[in-house]
Cyclase family protein (Streptomyces olivaceiscleroticus), 318 residues
Amino acid sequence: MDRTDPAASIARAAKAYSNWGRWGADDVLGTLNFLDEAKRREGAALVRRGVSFSLSQRFDMDGPQKGWRRRTNPVHTMLDTGTDAAAGHQGFPHGLGGADDVITMPLQCSTQWDGLGHIFDHGRAWNGRNAAEVVTSDGDLVTGIEHMAPYVAGRGVLLDVGRAIGTAGELPDGFAVTEEQLTATAEAQGVAVGRGDLVLVRTGQLARARREGWGEYAGGPAPGLSFTTAGWLHGTEIAAVATDTWGFEVRPNEFAHAFQPLHQVAIPHIGLLIGEMWDLDALAADCAADGVYDFWLTAAPLPITGAVGSPVNPIAVK
C-alpha cells in the first residue's frame, strides 16, 4: 500500500479482489450469495440459551448526525395522540381512540446497511454496470436494497477487537485494524470466520461516544478496518460485515487525500454488504462472559424499493 498513491492502490485491489461476473451478469446480491440454506441451518442451530440482543441504536433526535451531506437525525411527529382521543376530536364511534405517527429520516442516519448501489468506482457500480444506468433520480433501478430483504439471516460472528487488543475494551480513533489483528482476535476467542458468515467487528467507539458525547462520531476520526483488509474481506467469502462506527473503515483514511477507499473496493468490486453504527456492546459483554462468539443473527433491511441503504434492527440470539 503506497500511502501517497491511493488511485493506484485502489485500482490494484479492485482488480485483485473483484467478484464481477462470479454469480452471473444479472446478479443483485453480491456476497449474500455465500449465505445459503445450509449456512442458515448452521446459524439457527446456534441458539442455545434463547437470550436475544438488539444491535440497533435508537432512532431519535438525539442521534449522531450533524448535517453532513444533508444527513439529519430522525424527526418523529405524532399525527394522532391520546390528547386528541380524550378531547373527542378523532371522530371514531363508541369511545374508540388511537394514536398514529410518522418519521422522516435519511435511510443511513443510524444503524443501517449500505446497499450495492451506495458506492461507485470511476462510474462503475457493482458487477461492472454503468452507475448512471443503475442509480437515477428514480432510485436504484437494478440493485435496490429490496432484493436483499429475504436473505440477511444466518450465522453471526463477533470479532471484539476492542477487547482483544484495545485499552479498557476500546480502540483509539484513527486505529487501523489489520487482517492479522482480525485473525488473532478470532483465534483468541476460539471462533472461526468463513463463507457465508455475517461478521460484526466491535471497536468500542460507540461506547466511548455514549460516555463522552457524540462529538465527531458521525464522520470524524474513528478506529476501523485498514484498507489492507480488502483481501481478507474477499478471501474469507463472508456474506456481510458490520461495525460500531460511522464509516466501517479507519478514519482518517490511510492515504493522502483519500475518502473511504475501502468502500470503493468492497462495495462495487467485492459486492460486500456493509453495516455501520451497530450497537454491539451488550452482545459483546455477553460473549465475553460465556466465551461464545457465534450466534443466530437476523438483520433484514426494509424492502424500500430502489433504496441504496436501509435502517435495520439486527437481532442476535444465543
The two ends are 39 Å apart (CA to CA).
